[in-house]
What does this fold into?
Amino acid sequence: MKARITLLAAMLLVVVAASLSAHDMFIKLDSYFLNPGDTLRVPILNGTFTTTGNAIERDRVLDLALLGPGGLMHPAPLDWHAAHDTTVFGLALDKEGTYAAGVATKPRVLEMKGAAFNAYLKEEGLTGILERRKKLRQLDRPAKERYAKSVKAVFQVGDARTPTVSLPLGFPAEIIPIDNPYVGRRDATLRVQCVLGLQPLAGATVFAGSQRGREAPVQRSFTSDAQGIVRIPITRPGHWYVKFVHMTPVTGQGVDYVSEWATLTFEVR
It folds into this structure.
């Protein structure tokens, strides 16, 4: 009986951990290396870096941007497909260069029980909010959060490397690559800047991870400096991501917290 209880408890922990980690959003391309004239297939994972939980309908999109050698554009997506847990759309690419494609979503509201919300804060490195809840004796209190997400992928078309990829898309929250991930040595350090409303976000907990093949992603945490910059050691080939969540307590807005999410993905060969 005791062994059965222990097993059930362990299974519950696994389910809770899985649900907590299933709230990220990424653009994860099949390949980040393309040729001029290709149509880029853009899948959005709404869950984790390896799985997606539900599709993103077109009317949920606040902005869709494409930054390349021709500058910043807001193109109409080709064949937006959102069914069940899958979201895919296309973008036409006509010039060589380094590109960034991104999607920003409209805000939504989510309410969570106290324990689940506290665990989510801990997982995302939002220790300031968690300590505030402790200080105010609110750990048992449910929380209502208004959140919006901004996702971006940086990819290479042809051989020409172009510097425009280091410009912002103008999203509410964003991770901007200061260094082009397709220039230089594979074992270099990649600098990215975290911004909120185009202003540097200092002191943010930032996670960076990589995945090779079908293996589980390997993740590390960093803290952005006074200019919102994080220096990420590129240690191996694979698909990489960088992410952060910024949360603010609010009053009088019908919610307890407002958060902005940002992710960036790229590939290292």
Remarks:
- The first strand starts at residue 24 and ends at 27.
- The longest helix spans residues 2-20.
- Residues 26-268 form one domain.
- The two ends are 51 Å apart (CA to CA).
